[in-house]
Specification:
469 residues, alpha/beta, Aldehyde Dehydrogenase, Chain A, domain 1, 2 domains, 16 helices, globular, binds nicotinamide-adenine-dinucleotide, Ald_DH_C
């Protein structure tokens, strides 16, 4: 059908009338694709609007329903997340990423984590409530990308915030996918759009823009020393979850066969990517041979050739002590191939006996290479473990039945997580008690973060009433 001139004029006038009074500047701005924006500033602005709406119009029951739906929907796609995690980063193991993702989906605490405090007395009643910060800026690592986005999102939403993620560029696709799935779940539960957002072009520059933005009221940085230092120097509330180099100490009272099994399970979990994973073993001399013998029964390759050990060290660590990212999170088989060792079957880890100051011991490798250092006795073991942990105060593991030794090491190492007679991942609630997180805040002291870590304490005082003691 053809429109005559009169019809066209009428239509144009009608549209102009409808647009009058509307703010048309927003038409140029970008709409997200399930929480993913090209522009970081735009992502923050949208997360700001979402948080205002969320806090004003949604109650605690709504938050519970939204989190329940996020858990359900993510669990349906957990295999995809594990697969994409390995594909996108080129690091880790599918079957372990599956376990890590399931752990945070199921067990990250929600609204129930927000306990109020109360004071009552002659002067009445005072309540301390846990309120949202507003928009949180969260920086996520390449080593546990979807896991960090999931546990941070659940905790931050439970506390009434919205969150802007700045992921690692090397984990861009898996991080965007996780944000998209969370947004779809929130929408399905009737929640606001853009409560969890990110950018399609993550970079250090975008992380800087995010941290400095006036609408970001809290920064949560999960990563190495660089990002934690940057987050803590922004002049606003920041949580820093930094690097570790967890030692595992074994004394002569330990169940050696179990210790060997547990240490290999922990150090090879997701190819040693978790910051809590055993990074070096310190064993008293009297049980060292038996420990190594027992480790050999747990699908490891015992590298003894001095020449190959040197070659491996120069390949994975440069002269300045920096790790070669090409080998981070790779299968032991792939690492062995680089030093011309072919393995027919899958190997969980490479064990190597070294001196105490070997680069494998003092560097956070994040690869399934486990250095083993012999020491004279428990005194030397504890002293060395404290030294190689390097003041990170992150994680330590001990295998012993001597309560005095256990207590002494726990006291002296001062780590956020101390695991006794189990693989390191028991400290994350995997085979151990307690809730999980992949943001373990040692430097700023929140410890294993959860919803309450992402909330502000606010006091409400009612004077002269409601004390019925
Ligand atoms: P990384 O430090 O290279 O990157 C982490 C994040 O910080 C990334 O998003 C990256 O883009 C960003 N980033 C890095 N430097 C930055 C800077 N100067 N300014 C702004 N942003 C910056 O770490 P990674 O290799 O992805 O992860 C491994 C490291 O993270 C290890 O040291 C590990 O121990 C640590 N980690 C700690 C925890 C914890 O809970 N404490 C959890 C996971 C990983």
């Amino acid at each position: 059908m053809e429109l005559d001139k009169m019809d066209l004029e009428q239509i144009v006038n009608l549209v102009v009338e409808q647009l009058k009074g509307e703010d048309t500047s927003s038409y140029c701005k970008e709409e997200s694709k399930n929480g993913v924006f090209n522009n970081m500033n735009e992502a923050i602005e949208k997360a700001y609007i979402a948080q205002k709406d969320f806090f004003k119009n949604y109650n605690l029951e709504d938050r519970r329903r939204i989190i329940k739906t996020i858990r359900k929907e993510l669990m349906e796609d957990v295999e995809l997340l594990a697969k994409l995690g390995v594909e996108d980063t080129g690091m880790g193991r599918y079957e372990d990423k599956l376990k890590k993702n399931k752990l945070v989906i199921e067990k990250t605490p929600g609204v129930e984590d927000l306990n109020s405090e109360v004071f009552t007395g002659d002067n009445g009643l005072t309540l301390v409530e846990l309120s949202p910060y507003g928009v949180i800026g969260a920086i996520a690592p390449s080593t546990n990308p979807s896991e960090t986005v999931i546990c941070n999102s659940i905790g931050m939403i439970a506390a009434g915030n919205s969150v802007v993620f700045s992921p690692h560029p090397g984990a861009k696709n898996i991080s965007m996918k996780t944000v998209e799935l969370i947004n779809k779940a929130i929408e399905k539960a009737g929640g606001p759009k853009n409560l969890v957002v990110t950018t399609s072009n993550p970079s250090i520059e975008n992380a800087e823009i995010m941290m400095k933005h006036e609408k970001i009221k809290m920064i949560v940085a999960t990563g190495g020393p660089g990002v934690v230092k940057s987050a803590l120097s922004q002049g606003k509330k920041a949580i820093g979850a930094g690097a570790g180099n967890p030692p595992a100490v074994i004394d002569e009272t330990a169940d050696i066969e179990k210790a060997a099994r547990d240490i290999i399970a922990g150090c090879s979990f997701d190819n040693n990517l978790p910051c809590i994973a055993e990074k070096e073993v310190i064993v008293v001399d009297s049980v060292a041979d038996y420990l190594i013998f027992s480790m050999n029964k747990n699908n490891v390759y015992h590298l003894k050739d001095e020449e190959k050990i040197d070659k491996l060290a120069s390949m994975v660590i440069d002269k300045n002590g920096r790790i070669n990212r090409k080998f981070v999170g790779k299968d032991a088989k792939v690492i062995l191939k680089a030093v011309d060792i072919e393995c027919e079957h899958d190997v969980r880890a490479i064990i190597v006996e070294t001196e105490k100051d070997h680069p494998f011991v003092v560097t956070e490798l994040m690869m399934p290479i486990l250095p083993i250092v012999r020491v004279k006795d428990i005194d030397e073991a504890i002293k060395l473990a404290v030294e190689v942990e390097q003041g990170n105060r992150h994680t330590a593991i001990m295998h012993s039945k001597n309560v005095d030794n256990l207590s002494r090491f726990a006291r002296e190492i001062e780590t956020t997580i101390f695991v006794k007679n189990a693989p390191s991942f028991a400290g994350l609630g995997f085979g151990g008690e307690g809730y999980p997180t992949f943001t373990i805040a040692g430097p700023t002291g929140e410890g294993l973060t959860s919803a309450r870590s992402f909330a502000r304490k606010r006091r409400c005082s009612l004077v002269g009433s409601f004390s019925i003691k």
